[in-house]
Amino acid sequence: QVQLQESGPGLVKPSQTLSLTCTVSGGSITTDSHFWTWIRQPPGKGLEWVVAIAWSGTTYYSPALKRRSSISRDLTRNQFTLQLNSVTPEDTAVYYCTTRYGSSWGSWGQGTQVTVSS
User: Fold this and answer.
1) What is the pLDDT of residues 17-53, one digit of tens each?
2) In Å, what is the CA distance from 99 to each residue of 28, 37, 44, 63, 87?
3) Would you give the DSSP letter of residue 86?
């Protein structure tokens, strides 16, 4: 069974860059037709899709965050990483990594709380 685990800082200062890594075990991030995804949930709000990288390496960005976000992957470590630049307190959220195959969501990480505050 595929398992995902988020890692990164819990506290980031405004204007800095947030970097979160998702480590995947039990499966490869190059598995055909899988989209490795970051989703976040701000306090009191619903889930927000942020960014994804396909098994092929193609990347997809939320229009709302496209100018500040990037996603990359490390095939040797079976990881994918979100970077979010120029963060503000509105980026405070629980960040989840997950995978999507067709119309189905696969495994999710447990989520990691990120707080943007000085």
Assistant:
1) 999 999 999 999 999 999 999 999 999 999 999 999 9
2) 11, 6, 24, 20, 25
3) S
